[in-house]
Amino acid sequence: MRNSLAVALGLVLAGPASAECRAMAFEALSFSVCEASADQDLRLFLDDAEGQRFGSFGRVDAALNAEGAHLVFAMNAGMYHPDRAPVGLYVEEGERRAGLVTREGPGNFGLLPNGVFCFGDGTLAVIESRRFAEEAPACRFATQSGPMLVIDGALHPRFLPDSDSLNLRNGVGVSADGQTAFFVISDRPVTFHRFARFFRDELGVPDALYFDGRISRLYAPELGRDDWGVPMGPVVGLVAPGG
């Protein structure tokens, strides 16, 4: 059904089955999807070696090139303050740079339940923030955002099927076995409800987390994308050897 719908909309799934990024169709809308497995080199990026915010995919890739590596794909990975510091929990290489926020608050981040994307050392997970606070899992990398899109197979209770709030949106979902993370950006403005259903009904993930909207951006050479815009805060990217 997925392939037939893609053909009907004139979309071609990008590359072979092993490709990290591809185009997918759902309910007459297109989405760009990039995958990373638990054993791959997935990282978060915020500041360079001099302590300056990276702010762009190009600066992240240039820093990796200097180490003999490169970005396979990347996207913005969570909301941030005007100085581009993370709004909620942020952990990079095991170092906690910002604390967990569990209280309800304004905007999408505070639309509880929100959640944490926790990964590294062979693990991938999207965990609701208050459960995260209770369990305190070890994360080599972690970024908090909100709202949750899918929680244990259910859509966020505040999402409305007939909402007229449309935005470009991006987020991440993790497979039930914790071995695959799906990074998704809508190619056109979409409601929260439809975006969440794409994760649950098309990708089949039990838990998914919203990263952001409007400023949502993707770097995916496989898809010919290097989205630009205002400087970003946290960035998540898949790294591979070679400049």
- Oligomeric assembly: single chain
Radius of gyration: 17 Å
Structure annotation, total helices: 4
Strands in their spatial order, largest beta sheet: 1-2-13-12-14-10-11
**Largest β sheet strand count, sense and barrel closure:** 7 strands, antiparallel
Question: Which key features would you list for this structure?
Answer:
single chain, 243 residues, mainly beta, seven-stranded antiparallel β-sheet, five-stranded antiparallel β-sheet, 4 helices, 17 strands, 14% helix, 37% strand, globular, disordered N terminus
Explain the overall architecture.
There is one protein chain. The chain has 243 residues and is mostly beta strands. 14% of the residues lie in helices and 37% in strands. Strands 1-2-13-12-14-10-11 form a seven-stranded antiparallel sheet. Strands 3-17-4-15-16 form a five-stranded antiparallel sheet, covered by helices on one side. The radius of gyration is 17 Å and the shape is globular. The termini are far apart.
